[in-house]
Structure formats: C-alpha cells, structure tokens
From TrEMBL:
Gene3D superfamilies: HPr-like. It comes from Nocardioides aquiterrae. The lineage of its organism: Bacteria, Bacillati, Actinomycetota, Actinomycetes, Propionibacteriales. It holds the Pfam family PTS-HPr. Residues 2-90 form the HPr domain. This is Phosphocarrier protein HPr. The keyword Transport applies. InterPro entries: HPr, HPr-like, HPr-like_sf, PTS_HPr_His_P_site. The keyword Signal does not apply.
Length: 92
C-alpha cells in the first residue's frame, strides 16, 4: 500500500538548495521508495538533483508518496519538513 500526503511549501524561498538538501538527507534515512509530485512532474525524494529540477516555489502544492515498510512515518516526517518554514541560521 502507498502512503500519500498533500502539503503546501511554507518556506518563502521555496525548496531551494539548503532545505532541499536537508529534505533529501532525511528521505535517505527511510527504506521506502519516496516520490514528490508537482502537477505531472515527479522526483525521487532521495535525489537532490531530481528534487531541485522541480523548481518548487513558496506556496506550491506538492504530494509526497511513499511505498515500503516505513511509508507512514516517512510521509509524515517529510511532509512536516515541507510545511514548516526553514529557519535561516543568520536570523536565529
């Protein structure tokens, strides 16, 4: 069975390099096959280049999908990362 969750990108800069790298790093910690969808385009959540190629901007609605033994926890974790605005270290 596949777990899915639809989320809206919260970060004002979208899924740019740093948050995308953190997202991919987190995805690599899961055994499930993970995909992120934007409209008709899809990317492997474990590939930084694939995720960046989607050009995901602030406010974009995406679907996170997982298929595997830890699919529920993977979808919840990755979706939460996209829904939360990334805190810039300089502003902390």
């Amino acid at each position: 069975m596949t777990a899915t969750r639809t989320v809206t990108i919260a970060d004002p800069l979208g899924l740019h390099a740093r948050p995308a790298a953190e997202f991919v790093s987190a995805a690599r910690g899961y055994q499930s096959d993970l995909v992120i969808r934007v409209g008709d385009a899809t990317a492997n959540c474990k590939s930084l280049l694939s995720v960046l190629k989607l050009g995901i901007a602030h406010g974009t609605v995406v679907v996170v999908e997982a298929d595997g033994e830890d699919e529920d926890s993977a979808v919840e974790d990755l979706a939460a990362r996209l829904e939360n605005e990334v805190q810039d270290a300089a502003s902390s």
